[in-house]
Amino acid sequence: MKALFSNEYLPILRAYCAPDTLMAFDYDGTLAAITADPARAFMRDTTRELLCAVAQRYPTLVLSGRRRDDVQRLVGISTVTVVGNHGSETADDNDPSIRTVVAQWRTQLQTDFDGLEGVFIEDKGHSLSVHYRHAQDPVAIETMVQQSASRLDAVRLIGGKCVLNVLPMDAPGKGTALAREMKRIGAPRALFVGDDTTDEDAFAIRDRHELLSIRVGYDTSSLAACYLVGQQDVDVLLQFLLQ
Length: 243
Known about the structure:
By secondary structure, the chain is α/β, with parallel strands linked by helices. The chain has 8 helices and 11 strands.
């Protein structure tokens, strides 16, 4: 994994600054800093202005684990395409079967976690997120959450920063969603920026698609090709794309 603005990757980044490149971003930890209250994970004003300008120059996608309507509320830019629930929730989503299964899972997990202080189940329709950031012993709670969720039928579990994401096994992931959007708009290449375990699914498609994969934060275990040092450097990248 190399620094994005290194001598090795700068020429590659410049080559991706073409008008038909899909510019894709995760939201939490990427466009906005991680917050204790997810409802208050707002972009900086500078980030919003830069993202708006980028979306006028390039096809732009925000690909988040949040509910799609939640991401749209936070992004608030009409020219940005939004896909939620880790890639499974698009603008034309009309399949009620996933929501039925997820609702059943929530009832089962709520029974398991009843009385556990600091554990909160977020129902996002297409998936669940079990948050335990405010638990007294997050490490112990993480083990308990993993054990309970793994007993669900046909489930896929994706860890995160003090959160466990619970999805149907056959639900599209971020990699599928990114490739699908590239095909839909006819983009020959894409740039994707993410910061967490859920973004590895998108980083992995660079073996099959022309993708510049960028992680926020250095991590030797990541599949991303290169990295930004911190979340504030996303603004530097957005400025570069505009130059």
